[in-house]
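pasting for ref. prot 1 ->
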Amino acid sequence: MKILAIIGIIIVSVLILILLAYIIFYTRRKIIAKNRIENLFETILNEHKNQVNKLIKSNNKCYDYYLETLTNIYYIKVIYNFSNYEISINSEFSWQYIKDANDTKIHFIEDIFDFVTFKASDPKKTVTKLCLIYPNSRSLLYYINESDIAFVRPEEALYGINFITYERLNSNHNYI
């Protein structure tokens, strides 16, 4: 009986350790991602030294970062796509990710409504809403109509929002 109790305690302990490792891994992954994103933005701002440049991590639920340069203001929303799924912009408020070609379930991207409806203006600077997909996306598509789709390009705004992946912005800082 004592052996069964010891085996039971060992099994429960191993399961708890696995669960803790899983939680730590997924929590740490997001912290590392945020640090990499902030470092990228700081690098971009340092390339264009200016006293006006600033990066603010937002407490606003609508967007994650506020980035200001000499001529532009960027409101940046980050979508974490750690598995590099395909992302499809179906309509202004309906964005989804698709795991693979056989995936028939619809997986909507949450918390975008406030960002899409967010209106900001500045009379002296160009205001851009930017959706940053971290780290990458297998493909980034949008529906033109019910039967036609196209690739989303970073330089073209879609519903007033520019979309870019972290990897693309990291390789070409000129998008900001």
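and prot 2 ->
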Amino acid sequence: MVYDLIVVGNGLASQTFLFELFNDVKKSQNFSVAQIFSEDIAPSCSLRSTATVSPNGIEEGISELGDELKKAYEMFVEFNEKNHPRGVEKVDRFVAFTTEKEKAKMIRRYKSIDHLTHPLIKEDFLGKKVPSYLVSPELYTNWYEEKLTQHKIKKISGFVREISKDSDGLINCKILGNEVFTAKKLVFCSGAYAKLFSQYFPETKLIENTQIVAGSYLERSVDLKCDSFYFTIGDSNIIYRSEDHKLIVGSVSSEGAVLVADIEGLRKILIMVQEKINLDLGSFLDFQIKTGLRHKGNKRRPIFRALDDEKCLFLISGFYKNGYTLGHLSAEVIKSQL
């Protein structure tokens, strides 16, 4: 069988893309899609994320990245208001600084700072209150899965080990075990593993100069008997989602596909935020350490584009720390090129 489209990956990038794609495909159209992924070999970062969406003082006209992030944030807000997916909650993010350097950075980003109070923060502070969103990754991705089951998508469990184009311009995907699947077009939604595919086509050389960055954070299941909250103190976040009773503290980053976290760095963050918060967060041993591998593009720019002149091969990647923000924008761009 020759599929119209193969999507490689099963993280948020692929789910968002497929959701938006089928919004444009009429039910009467005979449009065939296969999705190939292996959570055992190449687990997605989507379920290993602090999962927040925040505008962060972004303005248009300053940089291309800023323009992309602003538009992506607006598209996420519009999508949420229209579809009301599970696991998304609008909250105010309270941002505070701990050093003069952080204060100067905050003023550059937000233009001003305010006197703020919050019942869960021990002292009044200078900072910014920013409308933002918390996302429960499990609830959110399950919502997408339920929506996508309404469409004819062939789910294939396997790790793509080889890709080639034949003389007819069709794309052949060989998975471990040597089974081959063929399609007219292919979209990589392979996250940090995108660099693995740079060997298949000369067009993917742009991936070689990108980075894999591991992000690690602390997570604990606990009912704090309070509303959700989102605090950023210096470079550290403390998040509580009342919907799924998850407390998150972090994070630390390491360059490369390193799954072993900076334990001492996480311990110091927990001690610091506990000194600021009017809640008993628990001991370090009460938390699990979670690590997700993220793909960082050149100058932190996301990548969503065709990789060949024939526009048969596409890539959605480089989301880095904005995975829950950039999905709808990248889907819109790739759909227009398909």
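The mean pLDDT is 91.
Helices lie at 12-24, 64-83, 100-110, 137-148, 263-276, 323-337.
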